[in-house]
């Protein structure tokens, strides 16, 4: 239920609905016998406007949606040309266009809409159609600028959130790399320095045990036993420090996914997956990042499933979204960059359509 109401709660959409309600209330008296048709057109206008986000990045469907909005707006103006408020629908339409398209596309579309508005008002018997169009043209410019800057601020906020997530993920990888390097350094120091001195101590204790006067001393036997146990403990510590290595990839991937309202990341990482090389971890992280961006921008996916598993001496990765990939699959700059980055890390990449119609990415990298 919340997902269905979410488009209505967006600030621009909520403002549009309040404006449409005001227009409906003001033109109701002029509709007369066309009241049913007028309300149906207003309802269709509101429905299509609220569903524009669901069309995603499909250009033809979005153009068709705006064509329906324009037709509904002009039909309502034709049914109620003299009230003076029905052209507000054109203001809403131009604002919506400014949200989705750059100015060089909005300006000719707005010019065509205003010319059509003038013709409809004049045909409907409006006393001063030119003046009415001029007045509403100013409202359209104001609404378009507000919508444009609102979307620009929203896009800037999203970019900043992605950059921040990128920095956090990179910092996590760098911290893991530094920690692993320090752990390895400590292990080597313990092995080379402490191990060397303990070995020397053991040899000296063994030499003392060969002295007839000290051979039977219990203190010497205790010291030899403690030195042997300490050497064993040191070996275990060094071995643990060398084995407990690897990048915390899960934390980095969740940091990358945090700014995206959708798709939601669903990560399944096998227990035996350990990536010690920071370059391999970064290549995998960038691949998931690009897959998430691609799914959000082109596929309108709700979820991104990422499975990471170990395959002998390699890491296998499967990424699949529940969006709608367009066949035939074409590699844009993002996917091409993903393939090149994996190739530099010694990995391979394969793209296909999933059973759900989304994009499926299968990759393999050195462990």
From TrEMBL:
Residues 281-366 form the Histidine kinase/HSP90-like ATPase domain. This is Histidine kinase. Residues 182-244 form the Signal transduction histidine kinase subgroup 3 dimerisation and phosphoacceptor domain. InterPro entries: HATPase_C_sf, HATPase_dom, Sensor_HK_TwoCompSys, Sig_transdc_His_kin_sub3_dim/P. The chain crosses the membrane at residues 36-54, 66-97, 103-121, 128-150. Pfam families: HATPase_c (PF02518), HisKA_3 (PF07730). Keywords: Kinase, Membrane, Transferase, Transmembrane, Transmembrane helix, Two-component regulatory system. GO terms for molecular function: kinase activity.
């Amino acid at each position: 239920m919340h997902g269905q109401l979410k488009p209505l709660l967006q600030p621009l959409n909520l403002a549009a609905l309040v404006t449409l309600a005001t227009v409906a209330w003001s033109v109701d008296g002029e509709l007369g016998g066309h009241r049913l048709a007028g309300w149906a057109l207003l309802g269709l206008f509101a429905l299509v406007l609220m569903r524009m986000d669901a069309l995603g990045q499909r250009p033809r469907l979005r153009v068709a949606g705006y064509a329906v909005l324009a037709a509904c707006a002009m039909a309502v103006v034709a049914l109620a040309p003299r009230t003076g408020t029905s052209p507000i629908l054109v203001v809403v339409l131009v604002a919506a266009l400014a949200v989705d398209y750059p100015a060089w596309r909005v300006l000719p579309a707005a010019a065509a809409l205003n010319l059509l508005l003038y013709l409809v008002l004049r045909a409907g018997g409006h006393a001063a159609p030119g003046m009415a169009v001029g007045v509403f043209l100013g409202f359209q410019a104001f609404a378009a600028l507000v919508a444009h800057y609102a979307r620009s601020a929203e896009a800037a906020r999203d970019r900043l959130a992605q950059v921040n997530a990128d920095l956090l993920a990179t910092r996590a990888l760098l911290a893991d790399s530094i920690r692993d390097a320090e752990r390895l350094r400590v292990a080597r120091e313990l092995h080379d320095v402490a191990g060397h001195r303990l070995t020397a101590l053991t040899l000296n204790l063994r030499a003392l045990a060969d002295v007839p006067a000290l051979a039977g001393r219990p203190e010497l036997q205790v010291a030899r036993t403690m030195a042997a146990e300490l050497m064993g403990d040191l070996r275990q510590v060094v071995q643990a420090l060398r084995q407990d290595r690897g990048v915390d990839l899960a934390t980095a991937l969740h940091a990358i996914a945090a700014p995206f309202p959708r798709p939601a990341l669903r990560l399944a990482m096998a227990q035996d997956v350990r990536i010690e090389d920071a370059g391999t971890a970064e290549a995998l992280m960038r691949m998931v990042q690009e897959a998430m961006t691609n799914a959000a921008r082109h596929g309108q996916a709700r979820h991104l499933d990422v499975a990471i598993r170990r395959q002998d001496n390699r890491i296998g990765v499967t990424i699949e979204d529940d969006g709608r990939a367009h066949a035939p699959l074409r590699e844009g700059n993002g996917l091409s960059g993903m393939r090149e980055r994996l190739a530099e890390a010694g990995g391979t990449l394969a793209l296909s359509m999933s059973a759900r119609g989304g994009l499926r990415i299968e990759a393999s990298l050195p462990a």
